[in-house]
Design a protein that fits this description.
By secondary structure, the chain is of the alpha/beta class. It has 10 helices and 8 strands. The longest helix has 20 residues.
Amino acid sequence: MNDSQLLRYSRHILLDEIGIEGQTALLQAHALVIGAGGLGSPAAMYLASSGVGKLTLVDNDTVDLTNLQRQIAHTTARVGQPKATSAQLTLEQINPEIVIEALVERVDDARLAELVAAADVVLDCTDNFATRHAVNRACVAHNKPLVSGAVIRFDGQVSVFDPRGGAQPCYSCLFPQDQKFEDVACSTMGVFAPLVGVVGAMQAAEALKLIMGIGQSLAGRLLLLDGLHMEWTSIAVARNADCPVCAGRQPPPA
């Protein structure tokens, strides 16, 4: 690291659990953030400020006035612009020393597999079950850790699904892809703005820990947040031996 980087990341380097080695791991890492909205905004901003060397942002939507109540990577002046490129502008202002790739596209399974394979960690910041399951399948297939978050109304949840652990569950173990789940949109149900910041920041924290190999991740645990009473509930999540996505898969050799 050069002198500027040593100064920029000095508060990380002071932490014994991170130090020079951990910060170097961040600078060499590639994170894939799928969704540049409520969750993707704070998650990507903390990844950028923390020095993750390359961020790939994927979102095919445009900034709408109703987004600005909670999607903090965007501004009023950018209404109508693609969210991915709007977020890219914000991240470049936060940290001009990292590489930020903005993809304004709706990715199919083949494209998703390509993007996941190239990343070190994947953050699912989307808002529908079909995309979440597609991201999960790609992460399992390529043995990439997945950090998943969701928020609606006053409720939030966050977890990690890490196929590298062998016995750890995947997203489909918790929410089977062959079951019907109703997608609930913010546009009809509403969302309490700060909660996406809380959950998105936690997604960033879990991603950073995974990259540096420090602490204990949320793999095997689902955290639920009741924002009205500000209470967290931790639920153990077990691997489903019959899961059609991850059953029978073994982690790659160390």
